[in-house]
Request: fold
Amino acid sequence: MTEVFGAWQIGALHAIESEDVISAVLRYASGATGVIQASTAFWPGYSERVEIHGTKGTAIITGDKLTSWDVQDDAGEPAPIARESSSGSSDPMAISLESFERQFQDFGEAIRTGRQPCSSGEEGYRALELVMSVYRSCREGHRVSLANEGQDV
Reply:
């Protein structure tokens, strides 16, 4: 990812000292673009969702479950599509710990076997760098170049 441009709304719905809505447009080294949007103001509250769209297919992850898989000419094994996913979007007490537990189990297994964990500290730092760059763009009102220019997050 090479640059990001962000915009936010503070106090759009809630009287809080933080953003209610934040949107970011990402530009990758290849020229592709991506969008991130987060909000505490969308009613009635929806599960977190990652949508990946390309010229030959779409995959959607809702919560931590694959909920859509539409790939042109896909001849592989059927995708493990989940029918339901839970979320804490409307009820914070409904937030599942399952994905956190899997991450801790993977980390423990990586230590035990001497392999790399599925998600490294460097990858975590790059995600933090992206978030901080979005906030900087929101504050300053212009595009922000990322330090890892030419590397995709």
